[in-house]
Design goal:
The protein is of the alpha/beta class. The chain has two domains: 382 residues, Alkaline Phosphatase, subunit A; 74 residues, Arylsulfatase, C-terminal domain (2-Layer Sandwich), CATH 3.30.1120. It contains 13 helices and 16 strands. The radius of gyration is 22 Å and the shape is globular. About 1% of the residues have low confidence.
Length: 511
């Protein structure tokens, strides 16, 4: 048979198969007629290669690995931004960074020690608001970062019935804070404060010098479990933006002792020289933070089982960006992390703060018994704007207009190449000099220094053959660069609070 005919036939069969998957995803009734529950777990600064099922060999993550064995593992999933606050904004609003209100980390400026981040506006529509308006009980437990309690960005003004954790990212730099936020009140959990930025240039480094009585991640987890217990008889959306493994490094000692002392014989103690707190065994300490995170994931899964909710609950696990970047001391990354030792990016280029793959490609696992094939893998490129339409469609809620993502349902329930994404994926970051990245199919374009005088030229990478972004093909394919840049300029909106000096000066067709 002619090769062209074979190719057309294969394409037709794939399209039919994908249409069948779309029908199954959207038409299969929920378990016993009950509305779907959703649990969305967001790790903080967890690198692409820091989980066992993504190739990690040193750090123990049995519960996250189990989740993958019971669901689907996405190999090309991306956060919405390379740093905390904008990633959360993209996730909650379903708008990519060329449209989102928050495009970088920025404090609200309310003059307090822990001021909270720049708030999203009253007009922003969050995924939480859609679930709440549809009769769901909505809870958030962990790190918010989208506006203080006295602003429009408070979680209680953005669709949450219950919030407990860190409103301000700066407060979250310590795992033993003086207070946590409960709805719109500050609740004291410790008699004092371990400030998250200290150094110890000389003398013995002791982990206990940086601990108090109540460990915030455990306090937050217990409140999340209470929410599950109270919500077992009604539909719920549970958002769990856990704070680990973001530094400062203050993990429970029992987890530190679970890892070999020999790991830290080479470099010795971390003394805070790259920011955040010292730790006597930084390699073991970092592994301990990820294992403690994994244990918390396991606790949530166990409670779902105990309450009989697992079969009718869609669980997502992912991270807000890649692992932390290098600092002034080349032996450690920020906060004492040794990302090279753990191969934290699994060979991808870049770190947190960068729009290269290591900064934005993140682990992502989804479980929904009866809908998602256990132990499956999907290689379709996807990212945070997709979760708003995906989760609201899965719960059979009305989908608002103006979202930038696509429904991942068919991809989650079937094979690769079933996503119908017409527009490129976009990242526009105001931080780290100003950056833009676009991905369409195999092509990824990157441009940097957009907020500096020496604006760099576009770079272009073929991710099918070069996932490490080592060969810049911009000179060979200027047509691809032109197409992607033209789309970006035409679709982006100017956000004065997070300037993009170069492209703001050009103006946009969207204005």
């Amino acid at each position: 048979m002619d090769r062209h005919i074979l190719k057309v036939t294969a394409s037709f069969v794939l399209r039919v198969f994908c249409l069948i998957l779309i029908f199954i995803w959207h038409k299969t009734p929920q378990a016993i007629g009950k509305p779907l529950n959703v649990v969305f777990i967001l790790a903080d600064d967890l690198g692409y290669g820091e989980v066992g099922v993504y190739g990690q060999t040193k750090i123990q993550t049995p519960n996250i690995d189990r989740l993958a064995m019971e669901g689907v593992r996405l190999t090309q999933h991306y956060t919405g931004a390379p740093v905390c606050a904008p990633a959360r904004c993209v996730l909650m609003t379903g708008k990519h960074l060329a449209h989102a209100e928050i495009r970088g980390n920025r404090d609200s400026g309310n003059g307090r020690m822990f001021p909270g981040q720049w708030p999203i506006s009253d007009s922003a529509l969050t995924m939480a608001e859609v679930f709440q308006a549809s009769g769901y009980r909505v809870g958030g437990f962990g790190k918010w970062g989208l506006g203080p309690t006295n602003t429009s960005g408070s979680p209680m003004k953005q669709g949450f019935d219950r919030f407990f954790g860190y409103n301000c990212q700066r407060n979250a730099h310590s795992y033993f804070p003086f207070f946590l936020d409960s709805n719109e009140r500050e609740v004291r959990i410790n008699p004092g404060l371990i400030f998250g930025h200290q150094r110890k240039p000389e003398g013995v480094v002791l982990a206990d010098d940086y601990r108090l009585e109540r460990y915030a991640p455990d306090v937050i987890l217990n409140e999340a479990l209470k929410f599950l217990d109270q919500s077992k008889d009604k539909p719920f959306f549970l958002y769990l933006p856990f704070v680990e493994p973001h530094v400062a490094m203050q993990p429970p000692e029992e987890w530190v002792e679970n890892y070999p002392e020999s790991w830290d014989e080479e470099k010795g103690a971390y003394r805070g020289q790259n920011g955040y707190l010292p730790h006597p065994r930084p390699r073991a300490g970092y592994a301990a933070m990820i294992s403690d995170l994994d244990e918390h994931v396991g606790t949530i899964l166990k409670r779902l089982d105990e309450l009989g909710l697992a079969e009718n609950t869609l669980v997502v696990f992912t991270s807000d960006n890649g692992t932390t970047h290098p600092g002034g001391d080349p032996d450690f990354h920020i906060g004492g992390v040794d990302a090279q030792f753990f191969n934290s990016t699994a060979g991808l280029r870049g770190w947190k703060g960068s729009v290269y793959e290591g900064g934005i490609r993140v682990p992502c696992i989804v479980r929904w018994p009866g809908k998602i094939k256990a132990g499956s893998v999907n290689e379709d490129p996807s990212y945070f704007p997709d979760w708003f339409p995906t989760l609201t469609n899965a719960a059979e809620l009305d989908l608002p207009n103006g979202l930038d993502g696509v429904d991942l349902g068919p991809a989650l329930s079937g094979s690769t190449n079933c996503l119908q994404r017409e527009d490129p994926m976009i990242w526009e970051s105001a931080g780290y000099g100003g950056q833009v990245a676009l991905r369409q199919g195999k092509w990824k374009a990157v441009r940097q220094n957009l907020n500096r005088k020496n604006v760099l030229d576009w770079e272009l990478y073929d991710l099918e053959t070069d996932s490490g972004e080592t060969r810049n093909l911009a000179d060979q394919r200027p047509d691809v660069i032109q197409r992607l840049e033209s789309f970006y300029v035409q679709t982006r909106s100017v956000e004065p609070d997070f300037p993009n000096t170069f492209y703001d000066s050009i103006g946009t067709a969207a204005e």
